Amino acid sequence: MERVEATFVKHFANANRTKGMNILRPKAKKERHILTFSTGFSAGCVFSLIVALVAIIRTRNILQGDGQKQYMNTMFPLYSLFGFIVLHIIMYAANIYYWRRYKVNYSFIFGFKQGTELGYRQVLLVGFTIGVFALLCVLANLDMEADPKTESYQTFTELLPLFLLIAMFVVLVLPFNFFYRSSRFFFLACVFRCLAAPLYKVTLPDFFLADQFTSQVQALRSIEFYICYYGWGDFRHRKNTCKNSVYNSFLFIVAIIPYVSRLLQCLRRLFEEKNPDQGYNGIKYFLTIVAVCLRTAYSFHKGDIVWRVVAVISSAAAAIFSTYWDFVHDWGLLHRTSKNRWLRDKLLIPQKKVYFIAMILNVLLRFAWIQTVLDFNFSFMHRQTMVTAVASLEIIRRGIWSFFRLENEHLNNVGKYRAFKSVPLPFNYDEDEDKDD
């Protein structure tokens, strides 16, 4: 053993024994009490702010004010973006918790550097921190009535959501070694490769992230609304001028960007791997692109029976194909001859009913889009609230999908380019280059 250690230190650690032994015998990361406290404190703040928000709305009867409709059409879409982000982060944190609980080697599958992967507490801290600042901005920006003299709202409070969005972007791209720099840069690199598809070889983190973005279409449209509202709208008077033909055209473009990225990734893998499954997967995303475009077009032709029928047929076809692909290819289930009937031979969760419940939820949540073409109306719910609710259900569905997708990858190596039986060598990178405490 000593000879092996000496050889490793000499050839792979530049004769630096301390550095070499830290690589060969890495110390287990200890959960810091400050992290647990900060996560719990931020979660408590989020809960308290939500209670305060509900209490203020109820006591002041804000939702019955004359400016309620104007607020829902302008400010609500701006703040809903942060809700989508926080919800997705919470789902990812839950996935990390259960991946660790059921021994899914997610850090190796994603290719995180050893010791830099985030735990679920750290991810929750990020999500709750964003939630706290977003809710503080909402509370500071609850004005429903304009100043009677100037007929305008306070400029500073109207700009709060924009300031928060810019602050989040700045923190994300800062090069300084704080606030999980390696994870931030890993995320940015994956985003770049998703946008540059198919110019780069497709790896699991890239197409996994692109799939996550397909569930954030409404968030991407919210970013488009930010640009239009603050760039060309009259935000001081909360006048929404984002209803012109250019804005409507970009609603189509923004919505299909994640699906086009996945389609190009599938074509790249089809060309490289000669695997026909990637071609079928590409067809799935093409059908989804058509369905999204037709549903968006129908939203501009409400009441037109032809547009409704076309939107329903295309969306149903895409949803059925996607559901089949989720179960059979992504999750590896529905094997009738398996020893676990209609599931698969290897299962990490001992309770088989969990898989059947997940499949049922996947179907129900995937077909939540049906309200957009059947025009369900609830008197107690504003249209923007309905849109946000449907988008949130899709994010929850994606969170459920993510757990079983990675479980299947861990067990069966579905990606066919990473063998999990091999042990990653510790000298592929310099661990001292980037450490997140």
UniProtKB/TrEMBL annotation:
EXS domain: residues covered: 242-437
Keyword Transmembrane helix: yes
Lipid bilayer topology: Multi-pass membrane protein
Official protein name in the record: EXS domain-containing protein
Keyword Nucleotide-binding annotated: no
Protein keywords: Membrane, Transmembrane, Transmembrane helix
Transmembrane segments: 34-57, 77-99, 120-142, 162-180, 245-262, 282-298, 305-325, 354-374
Natural source organism: Brassica carinata
GO biological process: cellular response to phosphate starvation; phosphate ion transport
Compartmental location: Membrane
Record-level Gene Ontology MF annotations: inositol hexakisphosphate binding
